[in-house]
Specification:
- The chain has 268 residues and is α/β, with parallel strands linked by helices.
- The protein folds into two domains: 65 residues; 188 residues, Rossmann fold (3-Layer(aba) Sandwich).
- It is built from seven helices and nine strands.
- It has a seven-stranded mixed β-sheet, sandwiched between helices. It has a two-stranded antiparallel sheet with strand order 4-5.
- A hairpin with a 2-residue loop joins strand 4 and strand 5.
- The relative contact order is 0.10.
Amino acid sequence: MNRFERRDLFLSLVGASLFFGAAVLATIFAGRCAPALIASGLVAVLVLTSIAMLRQIQTRSDESRGLVEASVALYQAIHPVAPLPPMTGYALAPDAALKLYDLVRRKQPRVAVEMGSGVSSIVIGYALKAQGSGRLFSLEVNEEYARRTRAELEVHGLSEYVTVLPAPLRDVTVDGAHWRWHDPAGLADVEGIDLVFDDGPPRVLGPHLREAALPLLLPKLSRDAVYMMNFVAADERRTVSDWLRRFPDFHAEWLETKKGNVILRRGN
């Protein structure tokens, strides 16, 4: 539920509560006028509720149209040899996928790393294939998801560009603080990372699971590396704010997408 839906729901609940209170007061104090007052109040509540519902329908309609347009543009850009996995639920949304593909094509990384495999692995794989070089190392918590992603990459002919690494959650220490993050062992020999796509670990596994990501990867990043985070909710916003405070040479570009995205870069 987005902030507009929450606001409309809140206003509807307030309106219903006010109507109930007014109906009780009218029954007590208005006597014979009570039915007319109650009926007027009911009409007002119905009108306000209808307006709120229409706003939600319009918002959902605009959002759906935007995602469909992004899906079409993404397919036209990458020309997949097979259908992409569904971009619903926890998967990468079409608008973010299109921005990710564009970012990779402009950046042309030699080495890329992502947290959380899936549609994003395929999108980045197609971008690397289009530039004719580069390698993506994908850290995946869930071995079943890793297996599925490897199978999809095989279907799309992208296995030579993407390596999916099993990376379960481990206790890690960053500047004396203890966090849970992917097992970084698979990246031990990976250096000069030009692009990071951060889409995990998933929030359902616990809070603050992305806090350690940038500090741990920072020594491995190239000077002009870009860092894109997907699904930026309240927890992730706090993490990004903490990173910007600790690493003032980074700045953030916030993207208006379905699930929220932010791109971090060094310098101006």
